């Protein structure tokens, strides 16, 4: 799991279709990049927290409740990849707040964001408590 100093990192190749008519990565793609990072983060943290134990918590999911996104610099196809970094800002009873940065391989800060995800109960169509496994996973992020 690419996790160091409390930061989860995912490197994502940029595609020609990510560009807008100005020649830089379209602003909507930034949300997709962050989503890919969040999904991978949750998968890897849950796998690490489970440590081979069976997970009998049943189906569960997450919904995005809030996004704050500040664009700092353009991202170009010539940058090759976007590096998405997530850090835990807050772990609540049913929600997780993450700070995100998108940087180029050269280290240029492209965007900063804060997202709030809510643990989701698909049957009840509403929020649910974070499971013990999920809490252990996010605590791994907080303690590295």
Automatic annotation (TrEMBL):
Q: Tell me which EC number(s) this protein carries.
A: 3.1.2.-
Does the record carry Hydrolase as a key word?
Answer: yes
**Which SUPFAM superfamilies does the UniProt record give?**
Thioesterase/thiol ester dehydrase-isomerase (SSF54637)
Q: Which Gene3D superfamilies match?
A: Hotdog Thioesterase
Superkingdom of the organism of origin: Bacteria
The keyword Hydrolase appears for this protein: yes
Q: One GO MF term, please?
A: hydrolase activity
Q: Which UniProt keywords apply?
A: Hydrolase
Q: Which PANTHER family match?
A: 4-HYDROXYBENZOYL-COA THIOESTERASE FAMILY MEMBER, LONG-CHAIN ACYL-COA THIOESTERASE FADM
Q: What is the protein name stated in its UniProt record?
A: Acyl-CoA thioesterase
**UniProt organism field:** Patulibacter brassicae
